[in-house]
Design a protein that fits this description.
Low-confidence stretches: none
Number of helices: 3
Shape: globular
Largest sheet: 3 strands, antiparallel
Strand content: 15-25%
Radius of gyration: 14 Å
Mean pLDDT: 92
Number of strands: 5
Strand order of the largest sheet: 3-5-4
Oligomer: single chain
Length: 68
């Protein structure tokens, strides 16, 4: 999307199943990593729903692949 000639990057919100799919983490491992500070915290979307910023998840994946 362009606004006044600039590319506007819109950060998608990923729900848990998609985060699990792209990271390869199971549900328990995902929440344990969050609790231990090894994975980005989700953003609250509503009273009973959360999601993760796509950029945060991508950064986490990039950090893992750079360390290899």
């Amino acid at each position: 999307m362009y606004v006044y000639g600039y590319l506007l990057m819109i950060d998608r919100i990923l729900r848990r199943p998609e985060v699990q799919h792209v990271t390869g983490l199971g549900r328990s491992a995902l929440y344990l990593a969050i609790q231990e500070g090894r994975f980005p915290r989700p953003v609250k979307l509503g009273p009973r729903s959360v999601g993760w910023r796509e950029s945060d998840v991508k950064r986490w994946i990039d950090e893992r692949t750079e360390a290899m």
